Amino acid sequence: xxxxxxxxxxxxxxxxxxxxxxxxxxxxxxxxxxxxxxxxxxxxxxxxxxxxxxxxxxxxxxxxxxxxxxxxxxxxxxxxxxxxxxxxxxxxxxxxxxxxxxxxxxxxxxxxxxxxxxxxxxxxxxxxxxxxxxxxxxxxxxxxxxxxxxxxxxxxxxxxxxxxxxxxxxxxxxxxxxxxxxxxxxxxxxxxxxxxxxxxxxxxxxxxxxxxxxxxxxxxxxxxxxxxxxxxxxxxxxxxxxxxxxxxxxxxxxxxxxxxxxxxxxxxxxxxxxxxxxxxxxxxxxxxxxxxxxxxxxxxxxxxxxxxxxxxxxxxxxxxxxxxxxxxxxxxxxxxxxxxxxxxx
Amino acid sequence: xxxxxxxxxxxxxxxxxxxxxxxxxxxxxxxxxxxxxxxxxxxxxxxxxxxxxxxxxxxxxxxxxxxxxxxxxxxxxxxxxxxxxxxxxxxxxxxxxxxxxxxxxxxxxxxxxxxxxxxxxxxxxxxxxxxxxxxxxxxxxxxxxxxxxxxxxxxxxxxxxxxxxxxxxxxxxxxxxxxxxxxxxxxxxxxxxxxxxxxxxxxxxxxxxxxxxxxxxxxxxxxxxxxxxxxxxxxxxxxxxxxxxxxxxxxxxxxxxxxxxxxxxxxxxxxxxxxxxxxxxxxxxxxxxxxxxxxxxxxxxxxxxxxxxxxxxxxxxxxxxxx
Lengths: 345, 323
Prior knowledge:
The structure holds two protein chains of two kinds. Chain A is an alpha/beta fold. Chain A has helices spanning about 10-40, 55-65, 80-85, 90-100, 130-145, 165-175, 205-210, 225-240, 265-270, 280-290, 295-315, and strands at about 70-75, 150-155, 180-185, 190, 195, 215-220, 245-250.
């Protein structure tokens, strides 16, 4: 169990400790899982790209632990931590990256494009900002069905705030007063484009103000701040106070994908406070405050590595999708399929 | 006593029927609630079905994304695009989100996107477009093009019941031009074309408003002694190739007419299928007739010459018949 349960009347200090430890363990699991995907990529075991969340784990985990299983979550490419915290099994992630026929997308889509829509876990399309209005629609539908108390979260990067989809959807959520939380990881680069070529406002949080959306900013290298600000925004949305925008500052500690050496990231940023590794910062915080000790950290690390290795070993023995057994139909209404599109094969 | 029902009445009645029968149905679009829609296709529905008809901001992308989310949650949204032309702003959500959802995840996406489309005099380049071709090109979408009052009603009802995203192309010219005495109680299913007129000399394949032009052209040609068969595709995706092929087998000649632009498209698709699968049935090279390859013009003189007219259809038919 990652969260303290059944403990009578835990004090405030204990709650803080438990929430940090829970989030930290998801951060660690995500980092180790990402490291494994990077290694598999380097050895040619993964088709297509690999996209890591290195440097974004505190933000992503803080969001994930703030959500309930009955909430709605549309993560983006650097949210391995949030996905795990929302309940995604490591096996789903591994299956999707290795293209297993048993994975959530059955080899039809890969890597970060995974989810289970019926569980409120939405699989991203590549078009940035496009998932926000889908979250809006799920939230609207639940309200339509008289289900209350839920929250929907959508994750973006700084680049996605330049899309029309972002603006349309944020405004739509405000008009409908939906319990939406949009989390923007302002990680200084959209692929290679620096923020001064992406936007000209002082803070991306200003964009929320224009739509009547409550805006928050947070230092995403600091887990404590992330838990407070992201958790607070989720609580505000849940309490019925309308959509919330969280803009988190950090530096991407990797390339856009593993194909990208990110030589464009300037040293000044790497050496700044933004360039701190949130995982190291959190680890030091936990040790300094005696929330845990080095021996326990080592156990978590080795346990997680074993779990990941076992998942990879299992998935590598699983069947790949079979093009001859594939149902080449893009619609669910089988009777409406075209019958004259065979193109000779 | 029979009252007159127009094509747009039929669309309104189908939506009322769907709202009445299925609590999962709701309508979302610009000006659709109290105002009743730019063309009055949702007139009084907000009053008759409180909490079921919602005005949206002018955000076509977010409108479609919203519908997809609601569909994931088990609802059956009907989205009204004020004009088909504006659906291009929501294009990404239609073709990349809605159309891929089932294939990627196994979760169906039952949304209906209503597109008031096609030319009317004075509409101009941005209120006249025919986009059925572009949507039919994408896997994962059903594209319907009703040509009659009866089909406008029954096919919209069926569209809402279909578990996949449906692009419902309703022709603005037909809205108040076509009338029927009553709404149908039974109909051909989606995916079946209809023989709108029987003839032995030439098959004209058409859909939506062009069916009416084809029928008028057939009347004109009858006075010259030609018996022309008119096939109304009804749905362009799926495309009922079997009915087309059977007609061509009877007539040996094919003209395909569409209001959309000439490069590629539904007419080209029909001809490609007939040429590859029914080459031996043809007595003459199959022909097609489309709009001109320019944006749709504003002035009536230009507009009337831009799209295929009854005269142009009849002339194209004569050319094949005399070959």
